[in-house]
Every structure is written in C-alpha cells, then in structure tokens.
Design goal:
alpha/beta; six-stranded mixed β-sheet; 6 helices
Length: about 200
C-alpha cells in the first residue's frame, strides 16, 4: 500500500510501503517534491512504477491519503486515485495516537529488530529547491527536526512542531493504517521535550 501527504508550496509526499512475513514495514520508495500539481505527481509516479503502461511491481491495493474536511481535500484524493487507477482511503489523523503507534513499531522486538525500516536510497528524485534552502528532501532528513512544539519557559504542547513534517505525517498515516487498534496512551507519553520517537532501522 501507499501513503500520501498532499502539498504544493509544502512538499507532496508519496510513500510506497511493503510488509514482510514478520509484519515489519518497509518504506522502499518515496516521492518528495514541491511545485507540482497532483496530476503532475501522478504522471511522475506512473513513469517509475508503470513505464509504458505496464506495472513493474505489485500494484498497491489502496493509497492512504491526507484529507481535509473541505471539498478540495476530497478532490485531490479523487484526482490522484483516478490518475493512478488505485482506490484511496482517508488517513486516520489522530496525531498523538499516531506518534505512539509509530514509537511502538520502532521499539526493538524479541528478535532485536524494530518493526519499521526506511530503505536506503528510497527517494526517487531530490527537490533541488528544498535542498538549496537547507530543508529536508526526504522523510529520513525530516527526523532530526521532528520535535515537540515547545517555547522557552512554557510546557510543551502535546503535538509536534508543524515544520518540515510532511514525510513523518505520511509515515504516521501508513502505520495507523496497519496498526488500527494499537497506540493506546501510556503513562508519561507526550510530556517530554526534545526529539520525537522517530528512529529508523
């Protein structure tokens, strides 16, 4: 399956996910780009996964998408799904539960391995405009700046800072799609300052 966080001025992020026999999730391909319409992104994606109209990998069963309550959000989902010929589903966007569910996957299991990986060189094409401005060009590069929204002298908000978080949002949608019933609040979660629990394998 795939997950998508829409954007134009901010990055549009599309992530391809696979799951192995032990339930581990792998982000194996990613598009992370500004300044293109949804239709343009769809065409770029198809040139990679279905050159000449023939899919070169298993076609995803569903795309889990960011969404808004307005009609524009639904329109973007519709445009993408129609262009790719893949069913779309609105993402579960509970931020704190999503963060906790991602954290649960990143903890080492009994075999000493986490349950979420980002594959090396997953990024298809680097956005040079973002790179020139010193901003992340992929989900992996977002992670060091994915921190709690806190101001000096004030308690941190129980939400991440809304800056350069588009790939982390798409990752959260993906995990929540698979682990629908996980991520229940645990004592002390969401109170600490500093980097959010987003290690990668």
């Amino acid at each position: 399956f795939w997950s998508v966080d829409f954007g134009f001025t901010n990055p549009f992020v599309a992530q391809c996910w696979a799951i192995d026999g032990d339930g581990r999730m792998y982000l194996y391909r990613e598009w992370y780009m500004t300044g293109r319409t949804v239709a343009e992104h769809a065409a770029t994606i198809l040139r990679t996964v279905a050159p000449d109209g023939m899919w070169v990998e298993p076609k995803p069963k569903v795309i889990v998408c960011d969404h808004d309550s307005d009609r524009q959000g639904k329109s973007m989902r519709d445009i993408l799904g129609h262009a790719l010929g893949i069913r779309t589903r609105a993402a579960r966007k509970d931020v704190m539960r999503g963060i906790q569910t991602v954290q649960a996957r990143l903890e080492l299991a009994a075999d000493g391995q986490p349950r979420l990986y980002i594959v090396r060189d997953a990024l298809v094409e680097a956005d040079e405009t973002l790179r020139d401005h010193g901003r992340p060009v992929c989900t992996e590069e977002e992670i060091p700046g994915y921190v709690w929204d806190a101001q000096p002298g004030k308690p941190p908000k129980e939400s991440p800072r809304k800056v350069d978080d588009h790939g982390c949002d798409a990752k959260r949608y993906a995990v929540m799609h698979i682990d629908r019933h996980a991520g229940k609040t645990r004592p002390g979660m969401g109170r600490q300052q500093g980097q959010l629990p987003t290690k990668i394998g």
